[in-house]
MerR family transcriptional regulator (Saccharothrix carnea), 123 residues
Amino acid sequence: MRIGELARRGGTTTRALRYYESLGLLTARRGANGQREYDEDDLRLVHEIRSLAGIGFALEDTRPFVQCLREGHTTGDACAESVEVYRRKLAELDDCITRLQAVRDQVRAQLQDAERRTDPCSP
């Protein structure tokens, strides 16, 4: 399939596919006419990249998942390197949640202080 069809079926743009290719996440074959050609395996890679990016993974973090699929595994997370990326991402998310909870607690405390200082009879 050509790049336009891959983009359509993969739910992305040709520009994004070219970018994935520049990062080494996709590898296009060239037809006799010089145009990029892709197959169903490439579509699986695009779906994997887009799925992970959709939940906040950086494109570089998708590399082990893509490699795992290229090695013939049925899923991109069947390899130890992919599982390690999951662990690292989960740790990052946990840290972010902890920081956000601390900020929320601080804002709540400041709101409570402000509400105590507010004159209920003021217009």
Q: What stands out?
A: The two ends are 68 Å apart (CA to CA). The CA atoms of residues 55 and 103 lie 23 Å apart. The chain has a mean pLDDT of 95. The helical segments are 3-10, 14-22, 40-54, 63-70, 80-117.
